[in-house]
Amino acid sequence: MFQTLSVKDFVPLLSMAFLSLVLVGFLVFLAANGVMCSDTDGVDMEEEELFGLFEVMGSLLDDPTWAQMHPQPCTETPWPGVECELLEETFIFHVTKIHVGPDVITPSCKTSAKISESLLKLPYLKTLSLINCFTVSLVSLSTVPLFGAHLSFLEHLALESNPSLSGEIPSTISNLKNLKILCLSQNNLSGEIPKEIGGLAYLQHLDLSHNNLTGSIPEEIGNLERLAILDISWNSLQEVVPTSTGGLQFLEKIDLSSNKLQGRLPQELGKLKRLVLLDLSYNSLTGPIPENLSGLQQLQYLIMDANPLNASFPSFIGSLIKLRVLSFSGCGLTGPILATFSNLTNLTGLFLDNNSLNGTVPPELGTLPSMNALNFSRNQLSGELLFPQDFIRRLGKRLDIRENNGLCSNQEAEDTNTSTSSSSRFLENPSCSSAMFPAASNKTVAEKSPDMKPKLYNGNKSSNARHRHDENKEFVLLPPVLMLLLLLFGS
């Protein structure tokens, strides 16, 4: 009644079962990777979200055929500035990133570009980056449909280099509860920074630089406990640096340069144990420099140019051993250059020009192994410069000690006759053995006759620590009588 089956009879059955399993696995793989379309019109996205994307791109880009060229932007017809993610529960793609900028070559933004209300149809959007997009037609930030509760997933908002983007930062920006990066730099924004910005509890990067913002920095900025980068440079902010910034324990960079900030530096800044860069240059901050800054042991860049500090260097500066750039140009500093600067073995740039520093130049500075640029020009330094020849050769024209009338040197350039000589600017200072310094080692600047102070350089130099450049030199010819004296007594 029952037929006995041999092993050979099972082979076809096993083969069919194996092929069925492979086919099912392949179909699951296709669905997981979005290759299979949804049941409606072969679209791999929700229809409202897809058409919302088309409307947003149509309002931005200078290409009316963009939607036709990219009917399935998440799969079959992608575009570099749009990214999508697959929602595993429904196997449907959602737009998570829109980026338009110079790195996405075509199409660019049109002259009448604006942000469409249809942006609100993209509820899963995490990143919106529009760079150099609003350049002709005025767009007010307060009218941009960004700051409602509909975009609760948004983590990265970058509207940068848009000269026609104007208006104030709306207080409703606090609705973007999940925002981690906010970059509104190089626009034409005005008004005050809203205190509601302190409600962005997850914010890590805040860049409002290069705008026309006024008023003060709100104390509420101290509520941004996760903040690592704070850049509000190149605005017109006034009043003092808020003490609440001292509570931002994750801060690594503070750039408040080129504003109108006043008063003294808050001692609370010394609590920022992770701080790497502190740039407060080009403000109206006054001294003294608080001793509490000795706690900034991770600091690598300290830039204070063009502030009327009118103080001397605190001794703790020599203990900030990770410093790479120290810049106090035009700060009204007095007193000597600290010998403890020689402890800063990581220092690559030291800029102390346009101050009232006096005394001698510590020879220990010539032993700093990483030094690449040194500027002591336009001070009241005196005595003999005692830097090693290899140090001077390494710095070349990046060594600048002009207009220190009491300073001299007995070192000479190796090849001062060639037009391509890279000899340092210190060589414009006279020799200590010349007639102008008959006893330089025994006399101070005050003891020398004012008539005997050399004036071998006549020129101007900007002292911006971030935009330093060499200038052509103008040599003033020595009077014939003085030349004769040098010939008679200098040999």
UniProtKB/TrEMBL annotation:
Main location as per UniProt: membrane
Annotated localization: Cell membrane
The keyword tRNA processing is annotated on this UniProt entry: no
SMART domains: LRR_TYP
GO cellular component: plasma membrane
InterPro entries linked: Leu-rich_rpt, Leu-rich_rpt_typical-subtyp, LRR_dom_sf, LRR_R13L4/SHOC2-like, LRRC69/RLP
Residue ranges occupied by any Disease resistance R13L4/SHOC-2-like LRR domain in the UniProt entry: 152-279
Name of this chain's protein: Disease resistance R13L4/SHOC-2-like LRR domain-containing protein
